[in-house]
Request: fold
Amino acid sequence: MNGTDHRFWEIFFEVYESLPRQGPGNRSCAARALGLCRELPKSPAILDMGCGVGRQTLQLAELAPGPIVAIDSHAPSIERLKAAILARGLSQRVSAMVGDMAHPEQAPGSFDLIWSEGALYSIGLQKALRVCHGLLRAGGYLAFTDAVWRKANPPAAVKAGFDRDYPTMGWLEDDVAAIRDCGLELVAHFTLPNEAWWEDFYTPMEARIAELRVKYADDAEAAAILEQLAEEPEMHRRYSDFYAYEFFVARRPLV
Reply:
C-alpha cells in the first residue's frame, strides 16, 4: 500500500465508520425480507456476513429471536458493534467477531438464516453464494442485497464508479441465475426503495463529509479525498434510475 492509498482509506473509514450503515438498507426492508423466510424455526441460528458496524445486526436482534453471529474483516467496525451489543444488553444472544467471509470459521450446516446486506460482492458473488450454501442447514435461508443494473448505457461517471467498486456487477437476471447455479432456490426478491439509500446512509454521509471538510480545511489531500467520496451520493441523486439494490431471499433445498 502506498502513502496515497493509506491516506484514502484513513479518510474513507473516518467517514464510513461513523455512519449508521455502510450501504443502502433500512429496518422496514429487513422486516420484509425476514417475513419471506416463512419456515424458519422459532429460534433460528443466524449469521450476519460482512456486518460492518452492525446496524442490521441489531435490527435482526429486534426482529427475530435466536442467536446471531456477526462477522466482518474490519476490526474497528467489530469493536463498535461489540460496544453496541453490550450497551443494549444483547451479549447473551449476539456475538461479533473478526472473520473472513471467503473462509469463515463457522462449521458447515450451522445456520438457519444467513444475512448479508451489500457485502457478498466483495469476495465475488458466486463464491459467496457457494460459501453460504455450505454454511446453511437443509431448508435454511439466505437473505442478501446486491447492486444490479437497471438501464443500459449509464453515464460515464456511473460506469466508472461501479467499474472501480464492483466491476462484475450484473443485471437482475444474472443474480437470479447465480443463485440457482449455486444450488439455492430463489424464494423472492424486491428492489430497495430510494429512502433506504438516504435515511441511514447517504444523508448522514453527506453530513459527516461536511464536518470533515471543516476539520481538514487546510489539508488539500484530505479535501480531495472527501470530494471524491462526496461524488457517490451526488451520483445517486442524479442517476439512480440506472442501478438499484435488490433484496434477494433464497433457500437451500430440504433434500
Observations:
- The domain at 3-45+111-117+126-199+231-251 is CATH 3.40.50.150 (Rossmann fold).
- The mean pLDDT is 95.
- The chain is about 45% helix and 20% strand.
- The first strand starts at residue 46 and ends at 49.
